[in-house]
Structure formats: C-alpha cells, structure tokens
C-alpha cells in the first residue's frame, strides 16, 4: 500500500500502510449507515415515518430498502467484498438523501446555511465512497 513517491514523515507512512488503518477507515466511513440501519431496524414505525416525511411512497417499502442498503452496503465495504457495489449503493442512497433533505435552494436564512453545509458534507461522503472503491480495486491491479 506504500506509494513510492510518498515524501511525508515515516510515522505517517507507518499509519497509512498499516492494514488496520484500511479496515478502521472503512468502518468509520460507513458508521452513519450501519448505525442508522440498526436504529431503523429497532424502530420500524419511525423508519417508515421518516420515509413518509420525505414523500416516498410506499414508505414501508422505502424504509426496508434504506435499511437493506445501509446494512448491506456497509457490510460489503467493511468486509472488502464487492466494495464497488457497497460503496456505490451507499453513494446513491446519500445522493438521494441529500437532494430530498438538504434542498438549500428552496430555503432562506439559517435554514439555507445549515442545509447548504449538510448538502456538501454529503457530497464529500459520496467522494469518499468513490475513493474507497478506487482503492479497493488497486490491489488487483498491483498496488505500488
């Protein structure tokens, strides 16, 4: 995993090349999703109400899809199995959520500011999933 052209401190290289860093980073990257999926499973009526709040019909179906994507996508990313699929599913879920819940272009004042920040935080998560999928395929191509 070490890059030949890395010019940072040795302790940074050691952290970045330690196998545990790769696993911990995937666990943390997906933490909002697997914890959300577990929480939704423990409160199905609340999960259904959330989908109804955003106008998704039928809300029970979309609650179950959301739970499946949050838990299944997270598991694939964490376990390193078809990471492209898990990261892609979580990225699409995030894109839909950010468009539905953070429509800052329809807001004013503090609400607009808050939604604007959340929108771009979600965009950053999507980029993180893209980078995770890219890194996951590199070993098969012979990582430098």
Task: Walk me through the structure.
This protein is mainly α and 144 residues long. The chain has one domain. The mean pLDDT is 92. It contains 7 helices and no strands. Helix 4 packs across helix 5 (59-79) and helix 5 crosses helix 6.
Count of DSSP-assigned helices: 7
What portion of the residues fall into strands of 2 or more residues? Answer: under 5%
Report the helical percentage. Answer: over 70%
Termini Cα gap:
6 Å
Q: What count of domains describes the coordinates?
A: 1
What's the average pLDDT?
92
Oligomer: single chain
Structural class based on helices, strands and sheet pairing? mainly alpha
Instruction: Please give the radius of gyration in angstroms.
Output: 18 Å
Instruction: Tell me the major beta sheet.
Output: none
Per DSSP E runs of 2 or more residues, the count of β-strands stands at 0
Low-confidence stretches: none
Q: Outline, from the CA principal axes?
A: globular
Element order: H for helix, E for strand: HHHHHHH
Describe the SSE topology.
Blueprint: H1 10-17, H2 19-29, H3 31-42, H4 44-53, H5 59-79, H6 83-101, H7 109-141
Please name the defining characteristics of this protein.
single chain; 144 residues; mainly alpha; 79% helix; globular
Summarize the entry for a quick read:
With 144 residues, this protein is mainly α.
